[in-house]
Structures are given as C-alpha cells and as structure tokens.
Amino acid sequence: MREFISQIVVTLKRILFIFFSFCLVGPLSAQKMVWVPDTTVCQNVAFQLPVFLSGFDERDSLIAYQLRLDYNPEFITIMDISNEGTLTETWDSPFYLISDSTIFIAGFSAYQKGFPDSQWAPSLLDINLSIDYDTSCTTSLRLSQVQFFNLEGILSIDSLKGSHIDVVYNVPPFISGFPDTTFFEDTSFKLSLQPYIHDLNDPIEDLNIDIHVPDPLTLLLDSTNWTIEITPPANWTGTFNVDVAVTDSFFVGDSDRFQIITLPIVDPPEPFHLISPPMDSTFSHFNSFIVFQWSESVNLDTGDVITYHFFLSPDSTFNSDDTIQMANISHSMLSIKPSFPDGIYYWRVRAEDQQGLRRWCDKIFRISVLTGISGSQNNPQKCYLGSPYPNPFNSQTVIQYELDQPMVVSLKLFDVRGREIRKLFQDVQSQGRHTVSWDGQDDQGANVPSGVYFIKMETRKYIKIRKISLIR
C-alpha cells in the first residue's frame, strides 16, 4: 500500500513540474534549421542552390541574418547571390562577399508563416554557382556559421545542413544543324530528327525536345519514329523560322534555327456551281429571256483574272453542232433569248484564268424549252418526259416529252390514291419532241380540286412519272 502511495506522489510531482515548466518557459517550439539541399549535377554547368529555413514562426517575421558558407574553389565557382522569388524579395538584395573559399552573406527577411518546411517553399535566398571540373567528383557547400536576429534579440539555431554535391560526367546533347528547306504550297514538310540530334549518354526518347513553329502553321511530332511534319494553311506561301531546342535530364543541351520556304504554284480557279435555272426547269414562249446564273470562282493568284465560258447544247455530251457557246464572260450571269428550237437542253460553265488553267462547274443542268419553234434537227436519241411548266400551276400547265422513234405513247394523270383522272394522249406518234397541256380538269370536264397529281408517260420500252401540283 505504501509503494502504491509513493508512485502516486511521484507521478503528481512530475505533472506539477511539467505544468510549472509550461507556465514559466512556454510550449516547446520546433527546431530552427537552416539548410541547403543536396543535389546531383553534371560537370561544367551553372546551377542554383537555395537556402531554406525550417521551424521559424510568426514571431520571427522580421529577421536579420548573417551566413558563412565554405566551398572548395577547385570544383566550385560562386557567381552571385539572388533573392528573386525568395522570402527576401521585398527587401534590397542581400550583401555578399566572395573570397577564395568562403561566402559571407548578410541581409533581411520577412519570414511568412504557413509555407511548408520543404524545398518547394520559398527560399531565404539563392546561390548561383557552377562546377568547373571535367570529370565526376564529389564536393560540398558547407554552412559553417549562421546568425539570425529578430526584434527580441539573437535567435538560437538548432541545426545547420550544407549541400552534398555529386558531380557526374555528362556530355550534353547537341544539334548538328538542320538544313533550310524549300517546298511548294499546299504540301507538308516531313523531317526525321535523329540525323540531327545527338547525345552520347542518353537515347533520343530520354531527351527533352522543344520545337516551335509560328502561327498559322501546324506541327505534328511522331515520338515513335521521331519525325516532325509541318503543314502550312492552304495556299500559304512565305518564309518562316523553326526553332528546335534539346536538353537532357540536367537541363543542358543545344538549340538551332532553320528556315522553311514555301513557294507559290499557279492555282487553277476554285470550284464553283450552277445556281439558276435549276435542274429540269421548263421555259415557254412566255419567257422573253432565260437568265443563267452561277457562283463565282475564286482566283487565288494575285493579279490573275478569271473569265467564264458558257455552253448550252441539245446534247448532254456537248458535241452537237447546235451547241451554243459564249466565251470571255467577266461576270457570273448571262441572259439568252430562247430563239432556238423546242427541246431538252443542257448547260454548263467553265472558268479559266489568264494562265490557261480551267475549272468546270460541279454539275450539268438540264432544262426544257417550249417556244413553239421547230427545228430540222428534231431527232432525239432517247425517250424523255420533261417537267411540267409552270409547276405548281393554277389554270394550265405544259408537259414536254420526246420519242426516239415512232411508237405508241400514253400520257395519263392520276391522283394521290392512284386513280386515273385524265387521259391526255394515247396513240401512235412520230419521232421527235412533242407537248401536251393540262387545264386541271378530269375526263368529264370537271375541275379537279387543289392537290398533288402525277403524270405517267408509258411506251413499250419507257415509263416515267412526274409530280404536278395544282393550286386553285
């Protein structure tokens, strides 16, 4: 029982000691540490080492500091001290003195609470140095003396840690010189990188390769075959620079610039299309002129001029002697008086520039002409049923058709339910072009109501149906 009471007394004494120590001294603070991270670099290269702080808090927000660092001048050259992006950036640059083997640094810092104690936090300052040695070696940058002061006096620093520097032998990658290249517009330029980028230590896939081309060019990098493809926009010509930079894991390397020149070529007129009259339009003697219209073809060559050649023919191959041609039209519209025989006609347009390059319209349009004019050449090569004109109609529409030889022909009208409402013609008819009209009445002479109807042309070897709309 006495032993148990003794243990309780000892425990109470310890608790009271800790309590009074906390009241008198305060909570234990984190260890204050000044340190420089270890690193691995290659020979004959400049790099930067930060000086970090750990364990400082908001009470140390205004700090004056003095540092001494020792180094081996056989391996290391100190270039300068910088504070850009560091805790001391808002103050003047730190004062420093570099001797043969020692750096003395002094300055002020506004330490900010909240930054993690890691190498990714802002540093106190940065030391810029280089390794002047041609082979692998090991050296160090040692913190030999540190003093920090705040408004309350000297701060006790618990730990110092310098930097252990491993120097490895490395041959940086280099570029043997990309050749300037010339190619024609509207093509792509492809180039293999491997004949021009060299590294004795690392394969090409371990290198950092940065290639820049200006707008509006596009760049495609094939990292499997290590080729690049540069594509200018369509019809783009000129001279542009391609910048190539290569670095290894130590961020040392080489860069090069070469030129690519795209030469112009003579471009044919751009595609265009027919607009009016559309496919299977019909014109009668009521039309004093037929207006033909097409979209304009764009001329890509500066200073060149496009003219148009118009063709209208009763033959879809345009080989007929009756083909109408009009050349050197400067605009995209043409009016023609239909003073030629009735029939089916085909029309198309060709664009031509001053270099003699040509572009045909994308399609051939077919029209029907019903003027009452007959021609001696009225000898169709096949049967054909034209579109009614006008369509839709109100009082009367005209249907034109062709027979390639004498034969029995039937033309009948049906409603949407398939019932025959009018027999327009049924008899033997000669070869040639013929017309028939419909006045909107049935076989009994009664007006049929508004709606959609179908005209059917039938011979022993040809059947064709066209739609007619009647609007009362």
What does this structure look like?
There is one protein chain. This protein is mostly beta strands. It has 4 domains: 33-168, Immunoglobulin-like (Sandwich); 174-263, Immunoglobulins (Immunoglobulin-like, Sandwich); 274-370, Immunoglobulin-like; 384-470, Sandwich (Immunoglobulin-like), CATH 2.60.40.1930. Helix content is 5%, strand content 48%. The chain has 1 helix and 37 strands. The chain has one helix at 2-25, and strands at 33-35, 39-42, 46-54, 62-71, 76-82, 95-98, 102-110, 125-131, 137-150, 153-155, 159-161, 163-168, 174-175, 181-184, 189-192, 197-198, 208-212, 218-222, 227-231, 238-247, 253-263, 274-276, 281-284, 290-294, 307-313, 324-329, 333-336, 343-352, 358-360, 365-370, 384-385, 397-403, 407-414, 420-429, 432-438, 451-458, 463-470. The strands form 9 sheets. Strands 2, 4, 6, 7, 9, 10 and 12 form a 7-stranded mixed sheet that branches. A hairpin with a 2-residue loop joins strand 9 (137-150) and strand 10. The longest helix is centred in the first third of the chain and has 24 residues, at 2-25. The relative contact order is 0.09. Residues 8-28 and 113-120 have low confidence and may be disordered.
